[in-house]
Design a protein that fits this description.
There is one protein chain. By secondary structure, the chain is an alpha/beta fold. It has 15 helices and twelve strands. It has a seven-stranded parallel β-sheet with strand order 3-2-4-1-5-6-7, with helices on both faces. A five-stranded antiparallel β-sheet has the order 8-12-9-10-11. A hairpin with a 7-residue loop joins strand 9 and strand 10. Helix 11 packs antiparallel against helix 13.
């Protein structure tokens, strides 16, 4: 299992400690604007943009074709699916007198070539202006970065931001109900699927699927006719755990009225980051999230560190020892890396533990969150804010057995008594955490694990 970098634009601790959801930025960021930059262009006429994302085969083209047939307005379509052959020709319902498509031959909004994506918007301005733009995103799209690019992205050659002329209305994720659990349990990576991504993009198929669900403004289940009602119910219930505040629609062959998907005004960059269900659990905002033995979640907490070798062995056999877990996120404390806060995440059966930062107890008080009464609740003597706090989500999880497996990885009373200097000598198969803002200490045994990477 190779290194996997989860697509996440936010700092975990900042998100959890955030007192309230900030409002959308309102100050003008357009360098060509002659005003004092304390105003907004929000009320000016802008072109709405709707982004449709989803894995290959989720039905994006079918739905967009249906919308083009239904809508009579001027529409621009940006096709970002780089694997699809004859992409424009597949839009059979396009009305050529008032609907135009632009194909990105290589670039996208979530890699080093995203300037091509930005430039594509210019084809729908001026004399050839349209009423709205629909983006069919590539299966590997990083929806957080795409949203940020459209809302606050780089300026064009004239110094004008996209947000001056375009408004991101919603990010809409399509999910193939007939293959949902197969995709979620897949061991494939984007590189295996020959997706046109950066060379250092190690994301797995489950990670991309979950990220697109967690940050969606609207979710559409497709191909429901291919599975039983019971299966659709399971898919929907788990999706609502991943993103509890987003509406979920069902569609067969694109038969969904476009009025339900357009002109929603749902997108907000900051609020999008707060959508994931695991984050709501950690922030104690899960009162509306239902947890059952069939589809549920729990939080594992402890004030003892994990023994790095026992934790490695547990995760290495996660399919056997952590059955039912489909998503997990949180903080982890490794005894051999006592100074460093580990960021734990899993998607399907892909697990990763990466260095996040130093624990706050080791940082100057001036750097601690201000005016947050909840922050100090994380401090317990003698180890400060060092802790295990991990949210697990899944299907048919046996919470008692899973907690038992995690408890076995914690230090015993005898190991705790040895103290921090002895902990550093524990066998540690994880790669060193190279943090820019902190010196990485010597983490004991540097033996490489599978594939020689830090993640299992």
């Amino acid at each position: 299992k190779t290194e996997e970098k989860e697509p996440n634009a936010s700092d975990l601790e900042d998100l959890i400690q955030m007192e309230s959801i900030p409002t959308q930025k309102t100050g003008c960021q357009d360098s060509k604007c002659k005003e004092d930059h304390h105003h907004s262009h929000k009320n000016e006429a802008r072109i709405d943009v709707s982004v449709f994302c989803g894995l290959e085969g989720s039905g994006k083209t079918t739905l967009i074709n249906s919308m083009l047939k239904e809508r009579e307005e001027k529409i621009g379509i940006i096709l970002n699916d780089m694997k699809k052959k004859n992409a424009i020709a597949q839009l059979s319902n396009i009305k050529k007198d008032r609907q135009r498509a632009f194909l990105l031959p290589r670039g996208c909004a979530c890699c080093s070539k995203f300037d091509e994506f930005i430039q594509s918007f210019k084809t729908f301005k001026g004399e050839k202006a349209v009423n709205r733009i629909i983006v069919e995103a590539t299966a590997s799209v990083d929806v957080v970065q795409m949203g940020e690019t459209i809302s606050y992205g780089d300026q064009d050659e004239n110094g004008t931001l996209l947000s001056r002329d375009f408004n991101l209305d919603a990010i809409i994720t399509l999910v193939d109900a007939s293959n949902f659990f197969n995709n979620l349990n897949s061991m494939k990576y984007l590189s295996d699927l020959k997706c046109n991504t950066e060379e250092d993009d190690y994301r797995s198929l489950p990670a991309v699927l979950i990220e697109q669900i967690e940050h969606a403004d609207l979710l559409i289940l497709t191909k429901c006719e291919s599975v039983s009602e019971e299966e659709v119910k399971k898919v929907k219930e788990f999706i609502k755990l991943l993103n509890p505040t987003t509406s979920v629609f069902q569609s067969n062959n694109g038969d969904l009225p476009s009025d339900q998907l357009l002109n929603t005004r749902l997108y907000d960059f900051e609020k999008t980051q707060m959508k994931p269900g695991w984050l709501k659990v950690m922030r104690n905002e899960s009162e509306n999230m239902e947890s059952t033995p069939q589809v549920g979640y729990f939080t594992f907490r402890s004030r003892r560190p994990f023994h790095p070798n026992r934790l490695w062995d547990l995760v290495d056999k996660s399919d056997q020892l952590l059955p039912g877990v489909l998503r997990s996120r949180g903080f982890a404390w490794l005894a051999s890396r006592n100074d460093m806060c580990g960021e734990w995440f899993s998607s399907g059966n892909h697990y990763s533990l990466q260095g996040s930062s130093k624990w706050f107890i080791l940082l100057p008080k001036e750097s601690w969150p201000k005016d947050d009464p909840k922050f100090l609740e994380d401090f317990v003597e003698p180890h400060g804010d060092r802790r295990q706090e991990i949210v697990f989500m899944g299907m048919n999880m046996n919470e008692g057995e899973l907690r038992g497996q995690l408890d076995k990885c914690l230090l015993t009373d005898e190991e705790m008594a040895k103290g921090e200097e002895e902990w550093k000598k524990f066998e540690d198969k994880y790669e060193p955490w190279d943090l820019d803002d902190a010196d990485s200490p010597d983490y004991g045994n540097d033996e490489e694990g599978e594939e020689g990477e830090e993640d299992e």
